[in-house]
Design a protein that fits this description.
By secondary structure, the chain is of the alpha/beta class. It has helices spanning 25-33, 52-57, 59-76, 93-109, 130-136, 161-171, 209-215, 247-259, 277-285, and strands at residues 4-5, 8-12, 19-21, 37-43, 80-84, 113-118, 139-143, 180-185, 187-193, 199-205, 221-223, 228-235, 238-244, 264-268. Helix 8 (247-259) packs parallel to helix 9 (277-285). It starts with a strand and ends in a 5-residue tail after the last helix. The strands form two sheets. Strands 1, 2, 3, 4, 5, 6, 7, 8 and 14 form a nine-stranded mixed sheet that branches.
Length: 290
């Protein structure tokens, strides 16, 4: 059911618009031989010392970054670019929009698809201006996961149905549905609360969940409020909670894509899923998925 793959190859390396690059032409050739388009992912948050305000706020740096991205994309022969800029400060508001505009012009000239990853809309992320993205990018991707995360202070689902639905509905107020891609997780979070009330969590891949549940002799109970199976058990005075991501829970969220006639689906990340999940993806989309 897969027709696009997005390898994380380009990372902003410095405050001059340089890129760390771990790309592979052989990878692209292999993907193309398998009928897959390659949209290379560009991230901004993996190299210490990178100042997003400088990179996006200075015209010369922005130009250098755009030219570096396009030059490398052409050299590798990829089909598109996926921008994953996270944790931007609001001071980047104008610079980020200008960056998307400038990048889109060069993408169009070089026949490259441009997609942009986004958080679910909230007041604090309004400055990402999804409506401007929609004017210039081919696709706007909404990442409907990390609903509950370390630092939030309480345990909960990584991606409940209500959270995903709201993420879509709020996004398509600003972006045409056919340009919107719903991104869903191939992982969940295990939450642990010790006897002193300290809370911690770790991620668990979808394909590891059945073994984890069986190993602990835990029961799964369907939680209608979030449309997920819920697991809870206590061992050695530590309470463990898990909101399970599986074919049924993903199906509920994929149905939102179908109902709202979105442009496609995306998943983070390939390799975390059981192979059988692709049968469900095709069932809900009626065609190959993004």
């Amino acid at each position: 059911g897969l027709n696009v793959i997005s390898p994380t190859w380009f990372k902003i390396a410095d405050n001059e618009g340089g890129l760390l690059d771990i790309g592979s032409q052989q990878y692209v050739r292999t993907a193309h031989d398998a009928g897959l388009s390659v949209w290379v992912l560009v991230s901004n948050f993996e190299v210490e010392g990178v100042d997003n305000a400088v990179i996006l706020g200075r015209t010369s740096v922005r130009d250098n970054l755009v030219n570096n991205i396009i030059g490398k994309a052409i050299a590798y022969g990829v089909d598109g670019i996926n921008i994953d800029f996270e944790e931007l400060p609001s001071s980047c508001e104008d610079g980020f929009s200008q960056f998307i505009k400038e990048l889109s012009i060069k993408c169009e000239k070089n026949d490259l698809i441009l997609s942009v990853d986004n958080y679910p809309p909230t007041p604090s992320s309004e400055f990402y201006h999804r409506e401007i993205q929609a004017d210039y990018a081919d696709y706007v991707i909404v990442m409907a996961y990390d609903e509950y995360y370390n630092g939030r202070g309480e345990a909960g689902s990584n991606s409940s149905l209500g959270f995903a639905r709201d993420a879509v509905l709020n996004t398509i107020e600003q972006v045409p549905p056919e340009q919107t891609i719903l991104a869903l997780p191939f992982y969940s979070r295990i939450w642990r609360t010790d006897a002193a009330g300290n809370l911690s969590s770790e991620t668990i891949r979808m394909n590891e969940i059945p073994d984890f549940v069986e190993r602990h002799g835990a029961a799964q109970v369907w939680d209608e409020s979030c449309a997920q199976n819920y697991v809870e058990f206590t061992e050695n005075d530590v309470k463990t909670q898990l909101w399970v991501e599986d074919a049924k829970s993903l199906g509920e969220k994929m149905n939102v894509m179908k109902q709202e006639k979105l442009g496609g689906l995306a998943f983070w990340k390939l390799g975390m899923e059981p192979a059988s999940i692709w049968e469900s993806i095709i069932t809900y989309t009626g065609k190959s998925s993004e």
